[in-house]
Structures are given as C-alpha cells and as structure tokens.
User: Which sequence fits this backbone?
C-alpha cells in the first residue's frame, strides 16, 4: 500500500513540478492568478519535484520519505492558503488539503518503517 501511494503521489508531484519548471501555459496562468511570478512558481516546481523524488527514494530510505512528505505537506498547506487568499471556490482550496491527507498517510506509513 505504501509503495502504491508513494508512486502515485510521486507521479502527481513530478508532473506538476515539471510543468511549473518549464512554465507550461496553464502554470503561467495559475502563477499570475495566485500572485506569484513565473520564477517563484518554478521554485515551487523544483520543490515539488524534489518531494516526488524523495517519496520514491523514501521507499528504500524511510527517513528521507518522511522528510519529503513533510515538505510536500507544507507546500500544500501554502497552496490551500493561496487559494483562500485569492477567494477561489472552496473546491480549489480543498484539492491541496486532500493531497495533504494522502501525503501525511504516506509519510506516516514510512515513519512506521524507520
């Protein structure tokens, strides 16, 4: 179960991280909407990609997986706050919060392996 969750989350954050790094048009729009520069959004993308890699490596080195899960959780809380700050629909803020729960579950499972 932990492996499947870690891989699914790694794919999600890997894809979104790369899209932010290459500044795909939808990510440029999202950055502007949320009040970030493209450069700032690229940094978020690098952090997401690092978190994705950390989750995968965390399958072999659980402490690293836990650290990656914590980092991704903090990013997601920031994402939810950005959506609330911009008065987005509740569903827009809910998506990162649902992902926080999944990342927390993954991190907790990895913590049990330490």
Assistant:
């Amino acid at each position: 179960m932990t492996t499947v969750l870690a891989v699914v989350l790694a794919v999600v954050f890997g894809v979104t991280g790369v899209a932010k790094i290459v500044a795909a048009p939808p990510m440029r729009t999202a950055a502007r909407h949320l009040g970030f520069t493209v450069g700032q959004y690229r940094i978020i993308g690098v952090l997401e990609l690092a978190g994705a890699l950390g989750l995968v490596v965390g399958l072999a080195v659980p402490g690293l997986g836990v650290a990656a899960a914590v980092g991704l959780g903090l990013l997601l809380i920031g994402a939810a706050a950005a959506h609330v700050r911009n008065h987005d629909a509740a569903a827009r803020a809910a998506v990162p919060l649902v992902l926080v729960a999944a990342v927390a579950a993954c991190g907790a499972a990895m913590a049990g392996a330490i």
